[in-house]
Amino acid sequence: VLDDPDLKDIDPTVLKHCHAAAATCILEAGKHKADISAISTCLEDCKLDKERIEIFCTEYQKNKDALEILLGSIGRSPLHITDVSWRLEYQIKNNQLHKTYQPSYLVTLNVENSDSGSHPDVSFSCTMEQLQDLVGKLKDAAKSLERATQM
């Protein structure tokens, strides 16, 4: 979009904000299964002219089915961690056969989604420092949640 010659005089930051706003409008309309009259009213409230509203609604209507399928594949709720397992991996040599002696942790998160049940596990490798940082952030999140529920 930034390379389009018609848009070269527009500040790239403004252009990115406009793109994000349009994407948000399209996603929210698809999420709420909004009809054309509701979208038109919303865009009129945003002071768009009639011609642009008609173009937007025509394009939205053409792509509405594909958008709903895409949104349906994403799901409605975040993944829920049900279990975690880990193991220590010790790398003795690298690809060039140099001795490295680097320990790392292989962590596997068992996750599920309330919308569609089970999902593939999430696995990652990290160093001890990265794992300690993750544990610290999880403890901070737990404390924040505990404080929020006490209010």
TrEMBL record:
It comes from the Eukaryota. InterPro entries: COMM (IPR017920), COMMD3 (IPR037355). One of its GO terms (biological process) is sodium ion transport. Coiled coil: none annotated. Residues 80-149 form the COMM domain. It holds the Pfam family COMM_domain. PANTHER family: COMM DOMAIN-CONTAINING PROTEIN 3. Belongs to the COMM domain-containing protein 3 family. This is COMM domain-containing protein 3.
